[in-house]
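Example complex used in Figure S2.
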Amino acid sequence: MAAKNVHSRTLSLQAKLEAEKRNSAATMLKVNEGWRSILRQTQDTELRQHIMMLKQQFERETDGLDNTIENLECGLLQKERQSAQVRRAHLQNVESLCALHDKRLNLVQEPWENCMEHISSKLNSQRELLLADSQQQEDNLEATMSLMEDKHKAVMEDMHKLYSQSTKLYEYAYEERKEADTEKKEESKQKPKWEPENDEWFRRMIEKDTFDIQEVNKDIKKMMMDPLMSRRKQTLTKLLIQEDVRAQQQQEKLRLHNQLAQVQKDGRKRLTNLTMQSNNATKKLQTVIAKGERILLLGKVCQTLETKLEKASAISFLTMEHREEKTEPETEEPAKKVSEVPELHQLTQRLNHVVLQRDALKKHKVELKQENEQLKLQLHKHLDDMTLSNNTFSAPDAPLTVHQALITRAPKTNTPNTNTPNTSGPNTRPPTANTPNTSGPNTRPPKTNTPTTTKM
Amino acid sequence: METSEAQTSRADRIDMQTTMSKSPSSPGVKLNPAESFSKMRRIIAEDPDWYLNIVPCLSDLCLQSIVSNFEENPMFEVLTPTQKDFVHERLSTSLDLQVTANMVSDGVYWKRCCEQRWDICDLSHYGNSWKRMFFERHMEKIIELFIPDVTQTKTVLDMIPLCKNYVKRLDISQLLPPIKEPQNEEDECGSEFSSDNEYDEPSMDHFDFNILLSKLTNLEELHLMYRVKQCGMNFEWKMFEMTDRDCESLAKALKSCETLKLLRIRESHLEDEKCRLLVKYLLDHPSLRELDFSHNLIGDRGARAVGKLLTRSKLEILNMCDNNIRGPGAKAIAHALCKNSTLVSLNLRLNRLRDEGGEALGKALLDNNTLLHLHLGANEVTGPTAIALSKVLFQNNTLRSINLSCNNLGVLGGKALEEAMSRNTSVTECDIRLTEVDEQSVSYINQAVWNNQSLEQKKHGRESKTK
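Predicted assembly (923 residues):
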């Protein structure tokens, strides 16, 4: 029982324990809840205050951040704006610089292009000129070439002709020489030295030719003997020999030509000398002839004079002799008068006669002058009267010519004896032909009278 | 006075000559070194125009007095050409422009003025006219240094009647904004009193062209850049932008200028709205021939406006390089091209046309017969565009130069272009650098282009010969 009681007590105690535990738990819960509620109530306000504080704090921070963000934004915008502005300004400046550069380039390019065009045009013109010149030169060259070729051909033909002629001549001469040689050999005994040079020269020529001919003959024989290989050599040698022969013949031709030329030159020289001499001779003869003619003329004049003298004085036979003798002394110069005495006498007589005549003539001349002056005065008076009456009828320049009619004029005479060329005859030829009236009553034909007046 | 001085100096010189004295440093003596060579010691002439023997004649003296008194009594028209040359040489370059501008004709005087003021003078850029160079650069300077609300507009207005006959082109490379006074933080607090010291709204953001353009009766070209060149540490993005007010005033000014042929507004931050505004005022402009809105921010809407402008004006050259035009914008321009018959050169380089825009342009060009130059470089255009353009090249006879550089055309595109170029006879410039086209195609296309070039040269030669 006790165990049961204990057991029951323990059970009950346990149940009580559990109940108390439950109760305590419940009360604990209640206590906790109560505690929590009290705590809540007390901490509520604190927490709320906390929240408020934190809120404000966070707000402040957000505000601060917002402000910074805004500032940054503004700054960014401004920077962007600034950079845009700078960029724009830079762009505008660069564009203006480019424009200036282009302007400068254009300014510089124009003269450069002009210069280039100028130079290129110059070069082109020069090129064309040069081309034209070169073409002309080519044409000229071609023409000259053709001419030269023609000339060459002609010369060659001439050469050939000459060669043939010379060969022919040579052969002919050779044959002649042969004949001459044979003749010479015959005559050589008589005349050993007849043109020895030519003889030797001919002999040499003959020897050479015979030698050549012998050689040619030998070659021909050789050719005949050796037809094959030797022929070539022989032909070559033949050609060579022929060429040599031709050369020699050409040389001979040249020599002949030279000789001919020399001979011709000599002949020409002689001809020229002859002509010169003949010219001189002819000239001299002509001068002599002229002199002779002059002398003849003089003689004729003297004759006339002397005939006149004869009429004046009676010295006819003397004049005949004088004429013959005059010509001789006059041609021989007056210095030879002394050589022949009778002629001198006659001459001196004549001279005296002539001198006396001259003196008489001078006196007569003086007298005539005086008469002329007197007559002039008379004429003046007479003619004044005449002109006063004639002025009404004649030309207006009449009075001038009256005075001019009295002016003396020198008549032209060829006589050697006249010493006074100026004559003052009463009848002078008026220079104008306007006044036949004034000079009418006083005129005699002047030409015929003047010699009579002087020689009176 | 002058003559007596000359006489005394001449007397001195005569004395020196006769006595052969060697006093080198007498200050008053003027010697012409060309005349006294060996026997005298050399003295550098002070007046190179001084002559011993020649007394200046009365006309020279009169001209000298004219030159010295030009301000009080200007007379130029009455002079003979040689006298005018004398005056050109001698007239002082610092004379007031009021006096000289309309009096003194084009010549050496203006050359002297230009060279005194500026170092580099490229005469060919200004039509070989020194006067034009002077006045254009002077005007440009005035406008570039014009500070709104500080500089008086009177300075500009006074200048206009003097230079309006000579100014044909204005190349303005900066436009200054109004001066901004430094703001204090206290003033930002919107107190009434502070509004006076605060940044006052200026009357104009940049120079107002309304006062100028209508009065310049010979103006043919206007180049504008809304930027500041030497801002240093005071950099602000606003200095490099064109404001709406500026745009409006400029647009009105452009409308009033009736002789303008070329308008160029570069690097001025021009967006769609501003572009539309400008185009609105440029529609039916009587003389505008060339429009250049490059290096701006024009997008599709602006491109559409420009397309509208193409149909309603006589534009010959359009340059929209380095903008933001995409496919739709290109389509608008292409649509305008179909009907247009005046445009000769189109430059859409450095945009974002892509194949959409490229193909649209290609289709439009099938109908167009006047376009000579097309530039589509760096537009992210690929093979299909090349194929479209090659279709154009088959039949088109007027297109002279095409530029598709820096686009990824690929081998297929290259082959299409090659086939097209074999049949084409008018294209003398085809730029396909950096397009990743096959080398064979490149060489083939180059050959075709060279053939076309030689053909054209022969044509030119024949034409010149016939002329």
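Residues 160 and 307 of chain B are 35 Å apart (CA to CA). The two ends of chain B are 65 Å apart (CA to CA).
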